[in-house]
Design brief:
Blueprint (H helix, E strand, L loop, with lengths): L1 H18 L14 E2 L3 E6 L6 E3 L3 E3 L2 E9 L3 E7 L3 H5 L3 E10 L6 E4 L3 E5 L7 E4 L7 E12 L8 E2 L4 H20 L6 E4 L4 E4 L1 H7 L1 H8 L3 H5 L1 E3 L5 H11 L5 H6 L1 H10 L3 H13 L6 H10 L3 H13 L7 H10 L2 H17 L1
Parallel strand pairs: 13-15
Antiparallel strand pairs: 1-2, 2-11, 3-5, 4-5, 5-6, 6-10, 7-8, 7-9, 7-11, 11-12, 13-14
Length: 353
């Protein structure tokens, strides 16, 4: 029994020495919080004033602060640093916080009942008032059990730790493997015939992205029987860009070069996300050389935002006068409904002057 008591005394002495080896700290070191991945400890040698605030410390995505205030009660606060990240993605925290007082071998610990899924934005979101007035050396120990973020679009908050890096890595690996299936022609089971060549692809991948392709392969159509799809209105380069998008092998320069062809294919095969991506991109760089072509595309594929942007460029900014020859040729072949809309837009602007 005496040996056990001796071991306990030595263990306690080591713990005290380890906890307060910083007793000679001065300056910023007295406000530093030691951290591991999920654990933070602030070791305070002595509270020489009624209020003290720690230096910022990193846990998860955020910088945090601890403060202590000694008045009628002993108050501890934990809160994230005010920043754009905190405003946009306030942490939803679960943690256990303890106060450990040990100015001698007799350690006294007070444990908070625990916080579960509490959103923390401001310094007053978590305040722990303790009746005991601590003196001497003190440890504030915070163990973060979880940190979550609420999705911007709503729904259940997701942990930043539980499976998040693994999920990201898994998605990246899956996309790489999918892209290799296309680039290395791994077990392709359908051939796409373009205007100037052919490319192997996979029925399952195409059918997953497009209800039109799904219908082709689900019914007794010639594409199902012959294992061939004829896309003669696309070049092999634009078709490659089309497939790269579907297979998750997005190439920015390739996409920009073939946007109009991709828009046509997205509309034809009912791939809404690709159509919207082309739409948004085409709005961004309208100029005198492409405005009429894009106006035609906007009318053909029912793209209201692109059409309004082209009309505004031509009429409101007066660019219609700079491309009179091109406009005359355009009017000779354009859809009558579109021509009518152009003139109505011009008349409405003139009436405003």
């Amino acid at each position: 029994m005496a040996l056990l008591d001796c071991i306990n005394d030595v263990t306690a002495a080591i713990a005290v020495a380890a906890s307060f080896s910083v007793s000679g700290m001065s300056g910023d070191s007295a406000y530093r919080v030691e951290t591991t991945t999920r654990l933070a400890q602030w070791r305070i040698d002595t509270l020489s004033s009624t209020y003290r605030k720690s230096n910022p410390f990193r846990i998860g995505l955020w910088n945090w602060f601890l403060t202590v205030e000694r008045n009628k009660h002993f108050c501890v606060k934990l809160y994230p640093e005010v920043s754009n990240l905190t405003r946009e993605k306030p942490p939803i925290a679960s943690f256990v916080i303890k106060l450990v007082s040990s100015s001698s071998l007799d350690r006294k610990t007070i444990v908070h009942p625990g916080i579960c899924d509490k959103q923390l934005k401001n310094s007053d979101d978590f305040v722990w008032a303790v009746d005991t007035l601590f003196t001497g050396k003190l440890i504030i120990d915070v163990e973060f059990l979880d940190l979550k973020i609420a999705p911007p679009s709503g729904g259940e908050p997701a942990s930043i730790w539980t499976g998040h890096p693994i999920e990201k890595h898994s998605n990246c690996t899956a996309l790489t493997a999918l892209a290799r299936m296309l680039t290395d022609s791994i077990h392709t089971d359908i051939t796409i015939i373009t205007s100037d060549g052919s490319i192997g692809a996979h029925r399952a991948v195409l059918a997953t992205h497009s209800p039109v392709f799904y219908g082709m392969f689900s019914h007794n159509l010639k594409e199902k029987e012959l294992s061939v799809i004829n896309i003669s209105d696309m070049s092999i380069e634009s078709c490659q860009a089309f497939l790269n998008y579907i297979y998750g092998n997005f190439q920015a320069s390739e996409f920009m070069m073939h946007r109009l062809d991709l828009l046509c294919a997205a509309d034809k095969y009912d791939i809404a996300d690709l159509k919207e991506a082309c739409h948004e991109s085409l709005v961004e760089d309208i100029d005198a050389k492409n405005v009429l072509e894009r106006l035609q595309a906007a009318h053909l594929y029912r793209l209201d935002k692109l059409k309004a942007s082209c009309m505004r460029y031509l009429v409101n900014f007066g660019k219609v006068y700079e491309i009179r020859d091109e406009l005359n040729l355009f009017i000779q072949s354009a859809d009558r409904e579109l021509i009518s809309e152009i003139f109505q837009e011009i008349l409405s602007v003139w009436k405003g002057y």
